[in-house]
Amino acid sequence: MKSLRRWLGPSHPAQLLLGLTLWSLCFVALYAGLSVACALAPPAPGQGALTAINAGLGLLTLATLSLLVWLAWRGLRAGRESVGRPRFIALVGAGLHLYSAAGVAFVGLPIVAMPPCL
Questions:
Q1: 45-51, long-range: CB within 8 Å, 24+ apart, which pairs?
Q2: Is residue 93 in a domain?
């Protein structure tokens, strides 16, 4: 348990990959979820963007955005308190988390704003 806690720390090198990994998992989950939902239970054509499919995708997008922003905030806070290599990793990791959050928003918002199953 102690090694897992250290691995998830804001100055561990794994933080350099975590944000981009979360973005890619969210990307796959959004488009796979959209495809499966449209194949199994497509909404009525005139319903517009207010559907259960878009609500679920919006919740996934918001949850991923929240996690990435929290990880970035935690990395920025740790970067102010550290020196040397831990500071560098924490600040670069925070930047990558913010970059990944922008990617999640860029991918998730059009899916949520447009009618599904076009």
A1: 47/115, 48/115, 49/112, 49/113, 49/114, 49/115, 49/116, 51/115, 51/116
A2: yes
